[in-house]
Amino acid sequence: MPDRKALLKLLSDGSFHSGEALGEDLGVSRAAVWKSIQGLIADGLNVHAVTGRGYRLASRLDLLDQHIILGEMNDAASSLLSELDIHDCMDSTSRYLLEKECRSGHVCIAEQQTAGKGRRGRAWISPYGASINMSIVWHYEQGPAVLSGLSLAIGIAVARTLEGMGATGIGLKWPNDIFWKDRKLGGILIEVSGESNGPCQVVTGIGLNINLPQEADHEIEQPWANLSSAIQAANISRNHLIALLLNDILPLLASFNENALGSLLNDWKRFDICYGRQVNLHIAGNVISGKVLGINANGALMLEDEHEVREFQSGEVSLRLV
Predict the structure, then answer these.
(1) Which of 56, 95, 117, 184 is catalytic?
(2) Three-class DSSP category at 114
């Protein structure tokens, strides 16, 4: 069987390649090429097979490339990066980092995740080469309590980066969802391990839909969007985007402390898709309805119901727009 990544690299230009030519380039038989093509199709890649012309991907494929990412990172972020792992297919980039002994600044990225997860254990859909699946580890001397607003701060950094790439209408939904025009574009999941009073390790997982096929509708239970729609560009360089994200996120992780979110409250308000809107807050089997008044300096949601303004911490609730 030919190497899967080598086959995809040959097909990544979106042009037709005959089975014979692919076999020669890969040093395998045409039958082995056909079998590998079937495997790509089974993994969700849209491969056209035309008699007399060969095989091609329905669109160009921007494969992850460590050299491109490193070359486009700025000096500040590069100095904070301890290691960059790129994998073809794995169960979860966050799980990979959680199970290893990693230094701060270790980044793991995968073309495809088979067991990625979102908040509250929901599955995160990531067909091959169609999204960004990235996790970053950082160590802190403080305990988890002082990091309560970290996921919100990272959400702001992601939203700024997407705006900088030309996306308009980017929004954030407390506590960790990235939206475009009221459709989910991505999410952030932070997993903390360590002592209650410190030190602790934080693994931040970031998932972004770049160019998911429409067939993903059958697996995703809510309205969703691709970044290609938000930017109105068919071909987005994931390598360029990852470099930009790391340029913003690595310095944020390195400098984050219990007071860091306070300076970002105006940015959160600018991106907050729930601000001033009626929501239903699902918590411990109960539903609390009210109007969102934003967040406080610790990242808690401020909700005004009929009687008072109440604060709710992330990780305890599910927020749904009315």
Answers:
(1) 184
(2) coil
Over the chain, what is the mean pLDDT? Answer: 88
Tell me which of 9 and 64 has the higher pLDDT. Answer: 64
Alpha-helical regions (H) of 179-322: 227-231, 238-255, 265-271
The Cα 210–Cα 71 span in angstroms is 21
| Cα distance between residue 256 and residue 94, in whole Å | 20
String of b and e for 309-319 (b: at least 16 CB within 10 Å)? eeebebeebeb
Q: Is 291 a catalytic residue?
A: no
**CA dist., res. 319 & res. 119, Å (int):** 12
Asked about 320 being catalytic, the answer comes back as yes
CA distance from start to end of the chain: 52
Higher pLDDT, 217 or 78: 78
> Considering 5, 35, 103, 320, which one is annotated as catalytic?
320
Contact 98, 145 (CB under 8 A): no
The dihedral region occupied by 77, where left means phi > 0, alpha psi between -120 and 50, and beta the remainder, is alpha
Partners of 184 in beta bridges:
179, 224
- d(C-alpha 123, C-alpha 150), whole Å: 22
Integer Cα distance of 2 and 286 in angstroms: 54
The type of residue at 131 is S
For 163-187, the pLDDT digits (tens) are 999 999 999 999 889 999 889 999 9
Catalytic: which of 4, 9, 30, 119?
119
* 184 part of the active site: yes
What is the pTM assigned to this prediction?
A: 0.87
- The phi-psi region of residue 177 (left if phi > 0; otherwise alpha if psi is between -120 and 50; otherwise beta) is beta
Give burial (CB, 10 Å; 0-12/13-18/19+) of 178: buried
Interval 130-172: pLDDT, tens: 899 999 999 999 888 888 899 999 999 999 999 999 999 999 9
Residue pair 93/109 in contact (Cβ under 8 Å)? The answer is yes
CB 292 within 8 A of CB 302: yes
DSSP letter, residue 95: H
